[in-house]
Amino acid sequence: MRGLSLAAAILAASACSGFTFVPLSRTSSLAGHALDRRTAGASSALSMSAVEDSATAMGKPGTAELDTPWSELGFEFRQTKSHLKMTWKDGEWGEPELVKEPYVNLHIGATALHYGQSCFEGLKAFAHEDDGVYIFRPDENAKRIRNSCERTMMPPVPADLFLKACNHVVKDNVAYVPPYGSGGALYLRPLLFGSGPRIGLQPADEYTFLVMVIPVGDYYKGGLASPVDALIIEDFDRAAPRGVGNVKVAGNYAADLLPNMLGKKKGFPIGLYLDAATQTLVEEFSTSNFVGIENEAKKYITPASPSVLPSITNKSLMTIAEDEGFEVERRDVPVEEMKDFDEVMACGTAVVVTPIGSATRLGEDGTETRYQFGEEGELGETTRRMYDRVRAIQLGEEEDKWGWNFKVE
């Protein structure tokens, strides 16, 4: 199935962002080249040869020895061969390195620790039937992390450099990519944070960029097979209007820890947040975008709130929905409108698609308002179709006609 080479993507990213990409040789591929980076504190040449010679043959996915069968992986940390690290200092990104130990030596005055100057991304690499490995839409993650960096005054990682980092760390850990047919993926977690010391509130003078990789299975146990029940959260807000809800900063997730735990104690594995200003509009789930489906009207509806993180999975699903003949609506979604939805999905990189069986609102007087989506315990037809198509593209089983898969080489 058609997929875009990461080398070609890097060339395109260089051109689009105003960088000059100069390949040294055909054999060095992504390993060695010069970059003239004229943006956001990057001005020196970079050689990836310090990391790895890309002429080295790729290994085979699924050959690492784990303490758990590939088909039974959950979504949790597992040690792999390496993570990739780069440091920004004196206005430029330094040489990348592959690090075996899963620890970071950090200054006690680092702005990430004191002021939360930290952002991250999430994306996945998949093994195809021919043992090729492809990363799903890393170009979109490169754009999104740039938005997060700009909002929190951190130097963005140039798009071509981001793509190369993802390529090299996956290649070095290819044995940990779950094999084709296992249902798993290699999860990439790019992380950028202020590592320089500042006690007064101001940007750091040093930043660290990491890309860690972990073999994973379903985020929620049972995955697509088991619809989950959501609790509508009203006593906490996920993000303030004009705040940082639309960027992927670490503090957004720390704020969800307590509501998430309280919801689970009440028997709800996932929470659904409303808008902070009026508490009348649906925003998003704890870690995922909200999607409502009206099957008869063929409508795919998702909130357009500026406080919602733009999900790359949701963006992909919207394209697929239109391809399936659905009308895609990005707009305000009143809470009461949930009674009209035949199906509801939570979507994101980690969960891909999680079917929501119901959403419950608990009143202060002990009353409950429950919105049921479809038949109790049954998976919706459209949810299944959307999930199957995304997964088929990710796994190379369906033509990648939108050019979403980027080959690791």
By helix and strand content, what is the structural category? alpha+beta
Share of β-strand residues: 25-35%
Whole-Å distance between the termini? Answer: 16 Å
- What does the radius of gyration come to? 21 Å
Number of strands: 21
Helix content: 10-25%
**How are helices and strands ordered from N to C?**
EHEEEEEHEEEHHEEEHHEEEEHEEEEHE
Query: Ranges with pLDDT <50 over ≥5 residues?
Result: 17-50
Q: Counting H and I runs of at least 4 residues, what is the number of helices?
A: 8
> In this structure, how is the largest beta sheet organized?
10 strands, mixed
Indicate the overall shape.
globular
**Which whole number gives the mean pLDDT?**
88
